Amino acid sequence: MASLLLIILFLLAAAAHVSTAFTITEPPAPFKWPIVGTLPDFLARGGVDRLPEIYNNMYKEFGNVYSMSIMGSDQLMLSDPRSFDTVLRSEGKYPIGGAESVDTFVNYYRENNVTMGIKSMSHGPEWKEWRSQLDADFYVAWKSYLPSIAMAARQISEVAGSEISGSGNEKVNFPDFISRSAFDMFYAVMFGSTPQTTSTAQVRAQDLEFVKAAKTAFDLTVMDFGNEKVVEFMKEAREEENVASALTTASFTGDEVGAQGGESKCPVQALKKTANNSILGRLLNKDNGIPDDELGTIAGPMLMAGVDTTAYVMSWLYLNLASNPSVQEKLANELKSVLNGDDVTTVEQMNSLSYLKACIRESHRLTPSTVMSAKKLEKDVEIVVDNKTYLAAAGTLIGLNLCALPWDSKYVDEPLEYRPERFLSDAIEARKGTPSEIIDHPAFEDGFGRGKRRCLGANVAKAEIMILAARLVQDWEITLADPSQKDEWEPKQYLMLKAEPYPEMKLTPRK
User: Fold this and answer.
1) Reduced to 3 states, what is the DSSP secondary structure of residue 299?
2) For a pLDDT cut of 70, what percent of the chain falls above it?
3) Using the 8-state DSSP alphabet, how is residue 138 labeled?
4) What distance lies between CA 320 and its chain's CA centroid?
5) pLDDT at residue 246 above 50?
6) What integer is the mean pLDDT of 175-179?
7) Rounded distance, CA 222 to CA 45, Å?
8) CA–CA distance from 382 to each of 27, 75, 89, 392, 398 (Å)?
9) How far apart are CA 373 and CA 83, in angstroms?
10) How far, rounded to the nearest angstrom, does the alpha carbon of residue 247 sit from its chain's CA centroid?
11) I need a surface site. Which of 316, 325, 381, 471 has the fewest CB within 10 A?
12) What is the dihedral of CA 41, 43, 44, 45, to 10 degrees?
């Protein structure tokens, strides 16, 4: 009997020890109402239109971790990327992707049986198969596409001045021009040629309609709240997909679609000739297990994703450069010294442009294209923050707040100023071993995600941003048409953050 009592006491003591060692802390949060959760507080703070301000203020109020619950959707927000690393390490074999929560896109692909689109927005074995089939040619082989991107960038720059600083109805507003630029560059990566949508004189109507429809679809998709209009615009974009007319399913049967003067007009043969300088050329020249008819369904989803995700980042970069003329002049001097008018076509050139890289990195710190990097897990995970353990239940949206530490004066001097110098090698070296080195964490490097679900086109997108900036800033001085508009915009949430109203830009040939 005494032995049994000792065993019970031992087990109780052990249980108490375990409970003490792994105490789960309730994260701080605004008042949570029945059904609507913390939505009233979110709206009182400004709602969707003031997301960056809300996330920054909640960090100041609650600290490195806090929770929100909006209409049953639970969120756990973290500020320290080292805590967020715990989440990435718990992703599992088939991690959930952020795009899966954008129901309008997922439903459209299912309703229209877009096979590759469906696979890309799943998280089971079919997603793994899709990623494995495309990873080598999209993510790994990005260096092969630098000449194609440079070709597109040169064509873009040749017309930039007349298109943006033109007169009357022919004038193109800067954000639209950047969206077309992103489309032309990614099209070049996909097909090895460009549709030149940035040139009013060259563009085909259906190509331009595709860009407009894709842009509208992305703009109308706000957070997790669906919008039926998105589907309408996606259908329009799909109908206009003969922007890649060579990629209709019929085209991939291997039959010729017409010939002139005995020359084959078969799009498959034309794409095969592009071989290593285009993604579809590479895919057609290898046995990767993707049927020809499925290859035809890659174009639409990829081109849509390539239009605005990259364009958002570039729009912020050029706004920061135009608003800070001394920074742009310093960048122009580096480009002249290193490139002397040449295009960027090699990794070596990219690596030699340290100030351009710092400009892009600082733009992301100051004006990120999204307020957070988000993950969902299929299992519960315990996260340690400031020596306290928090539980994120399966299905909880776990976010890394990009408007917290990067904007905190404890870690960044004059955090609301655009200073690329803070990301030059000597400044990074000087921060090592200090609290400020946290801003050099990879989680704050760019807006294309981390972990197994990092954007498939991340490397291509980063190259496009860098190559186009190098070309445009060599050729043009990019300024605000009205300098008084420098601070007249606010970041507004669409699918991502964009400046509204976006200031009118002026391009002057650089001497």
Assistant:
1) helix
2) 80
3) I
4) 18
5) no
6) 93
7) 18
8) 12, 14, 12, 6, 12
9) 13
10) 25
11) 325
12) 90
- Report the DSSP pairing between strands 73-78 and 397-401: parallel
CB atoms within 10 A of CB 380: 12
Contact of 431 with 444, CB cutoff 8 Å? no
* Bridge partners (DSSP) listed for residue 400: 78, 373
Alpha carbon distances (Å) from 153 to 186, 212, 220, 345, 464: 11, 20, 28, 11, 8
Angle at 344 between CA 342 and CA 345, to 5 degrees: 115
Residue type, 443: A
| Lookup: tokens for 63 | 């600290």
SS3 state at 370: coil
Residue 492 to residues 184, 482, 500, Cα–Cα distance (Å): 25, 21, 6
On the 0-12 / 13-18 / 19+ scale of CB atoms within 10 A, 456 is buried
At 248 the pLDDT is 32
- Reading the block at residue 253, the tokens are 């049967």
- Reference 425, options 479, 376, 368, 357; nearest CA is 357
Rounded to 10 deg, the angle between the 174-191 and 458-475 helix axes is 120
Indicate whether 275 pLDDT > 60.
no
Which amino acid type is present at position 29?
A
Number of other CB atoms surrounding residue 61 within 10 Å:
10
- Nearest-angstrom CA–CA distance, 362 and 365: 5
Q: Which amino acid, 441? A: H
Query: pLDDT band at 243, cuts 50/70/90?
Result: very low
- Could you list the beta-strand ranges (E) of 71-173: 73-78
- The DSSP letter of residue 503 is P
Confidence at 99, pLDDT banded by 50, 70, 90: confident
Helices (runs of H) and strands (runs of E) counted in the chain: 20, 12
Using alpha carbons, select from 369, 481, 355 the residue that is nearest to residue 419: 355
Q: How confident is the model at residue 268 (pLDDT cuts 50, 70, 90)?
A: very low
Where is pLDDT greater, at 220 or 262? 220
